[in-house]
Amino acid sequence: MTANTESERVAERLQRSSARHSYDPDVDVDWQAPLVDGAYGKAPERCSLYGTALWDRLDDGQRAELSRQEAAAAAASGIWFELILMQGLVRHVYNSDPTTHNAQYALTEIADECRHSTMFARSIEKSGGVVRRPSRTAHRSGKIFGAVCGPALLFAGAIYVEELADGMQREMMRDDSLQPMIRMISRIHVIEEARHISFAKDELGRAWARHGRVGRELIRWAIAGMAYVATSELLHPKAYTSVGLDPREARQAATANPHWRRTKAAWAAKAVDYFTEIGLIGGPSRRLWRRAGVLD
Ligand SMILES: [Fe+2]
Ligand SMILES: [Fe+2]
């Protein structure tokens, strides 16, 4: 079987699975239900300040609010990356034969990401309605990444962000102490993203094989930089100001917090292991992965 027919087989299977098992968050999430009083948005030990002196200063209500705002910040970072990914997928289809399963599955994925970004935006609105924009660094680097990345970088970026979200949201969907709305959007995202990760791994395998030594080293640096920015976007200054903390002091405390570092590393572990195995993490750019706090 050639790579091309193998790619068609993967895409056809994913198309069939999408047809059988997809969600419409407009109707599958109960947007009218009020937030459960006092319920956390993510487990306290997964909050960026857990275990720090700043955490000790917060009462339980503030900790729960911070957890909901950090969940909202993660949703906002999801929108940021999904918009970048959609651009790349549109270009992927633009360069493809639209009658192939591969192009049609890419269109299906774009449609999934449109629904996800709307779902995340509604969840942010419901968690307090704070307008959240990506940091200036993320906004600018995302613009460049989305406009110029080739298939290897596009699908490596997709795998990193989708696995990071999967690690986080699998925990959230199973934790019945959390806000039901957050559990439901996590469940929807985990199920639909599993297909995106399969598609991205299949695409990345072929794209990576086409690059020589220099191209691979450039991709290693670019994906390390993207992973650094994407991981930083899990935190947002407004999450801290919402509970009366100084955002600069709080971010410094989070960056130095070994609990938060372990949390990020746990969520990113599947992507980091996979990239290490195929050689996408290696050499001097490993230091950026360490700075992101996802690699020892
Ligand atoms: Fe998504
Ligand atoms: Fe996705």
TrEMBL record:
Q: Where is the composition biased (Basic and acidic residues)?
A: 1-15
Region span, Disordered: 1-21
Q: Which GO terms describe its molecular function?
A: oxidoreductase activity
Q: Which domain of life is it from?
A: Bacteria
InterPro entries according to UniProt: AurF/CmlI (IPR025859), Ferritin-like_SF (IPR009078), RNR-like (IPR012348)
Q: How is this protein named in the record?
A: p-aminobenzoate N-oxygenase AurF
